């Protein structure tokens, strides 16, 4: 059927006010910060307001072979949210209510379009939080975080989405747009194969998530923080390992390499001063233990050659002193440095997302430094060091073919390093379009290459007409 007829059909199915066809708006929903853009613009962006709207749209799309690209806030860094070839974007923006919260049952139920920071502002009134905090949490949605399997700074203690989702309301890409709940409202739940965890990280390829039952946890009584500088990345990585060896589980443990630290300090406009690489450690404590924990932490940092240490006894004090600002400037710093080093106005930044077992951090850091020498590409490092999740990044000129092909080689070498150290090619950003080959490499390295075929069969079982986010993951 021709595009305009399909759009008419969608409008009469779901309502005119929920369908946007203005090409300049469609373009806004056709790109990602990863750099991926649509090959063919979608016909429309559809904004469902209820789960019934989603079902009606999906049923229409199934019957008329229309591709659907579900989106939250389109902050994916892996090419998972971008509409590839026509079809329609299904934006969950208008489904943005927190539906129910039960403190005794430790859960909250949120619609897919609720932004993570908004959810946490709301939960704070109960003295609770949802602890998964991607750096994009000001805009990232619950549905997007579920589907990308997101993590964040508090991952040091709380892990990623797969640890915090109890159940989901989903709509299947079938003839009726079937709605159902999977998982439970209870903390313990066995329902045969774990379909909830199958949907988490499935990147919108299996079902549309309309509501999520999320586990919540009390806000910590207090949090102490130390920001320290180290002469080398090896010393910093060893400090992270020593902290973990001590039996303390940090609440947050983040790092930036020397170049990025210096640039981030410039951009953050901070009074903090220090040279070398930066380590940021927060530990949640009972109020009575504040001083004892902070002095223990400072001692560990200083014993590992920290050259300058800034401390705060509470989160409020840490925010007031700007202790988190340097880390938060990671992405702007990478951009700033790339522009400066390459001497171009609009560099492309490739942000990687590997993880290695934390005991292998020092090896990983050395190997990545060797890659920088091998390719001569401006390389920056930072990330969630407590769980071994590194975000090495390279800046390059996309118009320079030589450089672009070096970046591709760097990218595959980097994934090989992660795999050879017993790690993974993707910790939290996902597979999308960017890491389909990397996923094959990792599974093959574990003798599990045939799992790609099994994943394709799972995709077919959920989505027999391949209308949901086609071309992504497998
Ligand atoms: C500056 C910046 C910092 C970031 N920091 C982090 C970080 O610290 N940790 C981290 O994990 N990620 C990070 N990311 C990546 C990204 O922000 C997160 O993965 C985030 O959770 C995605 O949310 P979103 O609403 O933007 O989802 P989108 O990007 O819109 O979508 C992500 C995936 O989910 C699918 N999807 C979205 N909603 C639904 C739905 N309701 N049903 C079915 N499928 C759906 C999409 O099709 C896509 O495959 C960062 C990105 C940026 C730009």
Explain the overall architecture.
Helix content is about 35%, strand content about 20%. It is α+β, with helices and mostly antiparallel strands and about 475 residues long. It has 3 domains: about 5-95, Uridine Diphospho-n-acetylenolpyruvylglucosamine Reductase, domain 2, CATH 3.30.43; about 100-220, Uridine Diphospho-n-acetylenolpyruvylglucosamine Reductase, domain 3; about 220-430, FAD-linked oxidases, C-terminal domain (Vanillyl-alcohol Oxidase, Chain A, domain 3, 3-Layer(aba) Sandwich), CATH 3.40.462. Strand 8 (about 165-170) and strand 9 form a beta hairpin. Helix 9 (about 260-270) packs across helix 13 (about 330-340). The two termini are about 25 Å apart. The relative contact order is 0.12. Bound molecules: flavin-adenine dinucleotide. Flavin-adenine dinucleotide binds near residues 76, 152, 209 and 429.
Short description:
The protein is of the alpha+beta class and 474 residues long.
Percent of residues in beta strands: 15-25%
Mean pLDDT across all residues, rounded? 95
Rg, nearest Å: 23 Å
CATH topology of the largest domain: Vanillyl-alcohol Oxidase, Chain A, domain 3
List the uncertain runs.
Answer: none
Largest sheet descriptor: 6 strands, antiparallel
- What would you call the structural class? alpha+beta
Percent helix: 25-40%
Overall shape: globular
What name goes with the CATH superfamily of the largest domain? FAD-linked oxidases, C-terminal domain
Which oligomerization state do the chains in this entry correspond to?
single chain
Which strand order spans the largest sheet, edge to edge or round the barrel? 15-12-14-13-18-19
| Molecules bound to protein | flavin-adenine dinucleotide
* Helical stretch tally: 17
Q: Give the C-level CATH assignment of the largest domain.
A: Alpha Beta
Q: Count all strands and give the number.
A: 20
Number of domains: 3
Label the CATH architecture of the largest domain. 3-Layer(aba) Sandwich
In angstroms, what separates the terminal alpha carbons?
A: 27 Å
């Amino acid at each position: 059927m021709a595009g305009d007829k399909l759009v008419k059909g969608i409008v009469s199915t779901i309502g005119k006010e929920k369908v946007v066809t203005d090409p300049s708006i469609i373009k806004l929903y056709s790109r990602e910060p990863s750099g991926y853009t649509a090959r063919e613009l979608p016909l429309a962006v559809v904004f469902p307001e209820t789960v019934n709207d989603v079902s009606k749209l999906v049923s229409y799309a199934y019957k008329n072979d229309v591709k659907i690209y579900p989106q939250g806030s389109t902050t994916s860094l892996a090419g998972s949210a971008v509409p590839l070839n026509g079809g329609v974007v299904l934006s969950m923006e208008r489904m943005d209510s927190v539906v129910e919260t039960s403190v005794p049952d430790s859960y909250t139920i949120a619609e897919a379009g609720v932004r993570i920071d908004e959810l946490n502002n709301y939960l704070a009134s109960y003295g609770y939080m949802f602890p998964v905090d991607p750096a994009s949490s000001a805009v990232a949605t619950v549905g997007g975080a579920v589907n990308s399997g997101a993590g964040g700074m508090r991952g040091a203690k709380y892990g990623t989405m797969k640890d915090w989702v109890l159940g989901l309301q989903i709509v299947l890409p079938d003839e009726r747009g079937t709605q159902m709940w999977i998982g439970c409202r209870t903390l313990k739940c066995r329902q045969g194969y774990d379909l909830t965890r199958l949907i988490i990280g499935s990147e919108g390829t299996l079902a549309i998530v309309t509501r999520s039952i999320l586990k919540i946890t009390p806000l910590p009584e207090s949090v102490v923080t130390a920001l320290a500088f180290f002469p080398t990345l090896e010393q910093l990585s060893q400090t992270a390992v020593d902290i973990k060896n001590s039996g303390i589980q940090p609440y947050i443990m983040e790092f930036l390499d020397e170049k990025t630290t210096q640039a981030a300090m410039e951009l953050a406009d901070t009074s903090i001063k220090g040279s070398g690489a930066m380590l940021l450690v927060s530990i949640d404590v009972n109020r009575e233990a504040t001083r004892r924990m902070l002095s223990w932490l400072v001692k560990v940092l200083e014993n590992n050659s920290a050259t300058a240490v800034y401390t705060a006894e509470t989160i409020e004090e840490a925010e007031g002193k700007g202790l988190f600002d340097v880390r938060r400037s990671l992405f702007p710093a990478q951009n700033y440095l790339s522009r400066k080093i390459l001497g171009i106005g609009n560099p492309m930044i490739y942000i990687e997302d590997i993880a290695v077992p934390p005991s292998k951090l020092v090896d990983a850091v050395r190997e990545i430094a060797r890659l920088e020498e091998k390719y001569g590409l401006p390389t920056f490092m930072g990330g969630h060091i407590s769980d071994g999740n590194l975000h090495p990044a390279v800046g390059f000129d996309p118009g320079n073919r030589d450089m672009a092909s070096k970046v591709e080689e760097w990218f595959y070498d980097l994934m090989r390093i992660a795999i050879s150290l017993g790690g993974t090619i993707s910790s939290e950003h996902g597979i999308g379009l960017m890491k389909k080959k990397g996923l094959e490499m990792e599974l093959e390295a574990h003798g599990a290459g045939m799992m790609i075929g099994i994943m394709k069969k799972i995709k077919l079982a959920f989505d027999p007409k391949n209308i949901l986010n086609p071309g992504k993951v497998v």
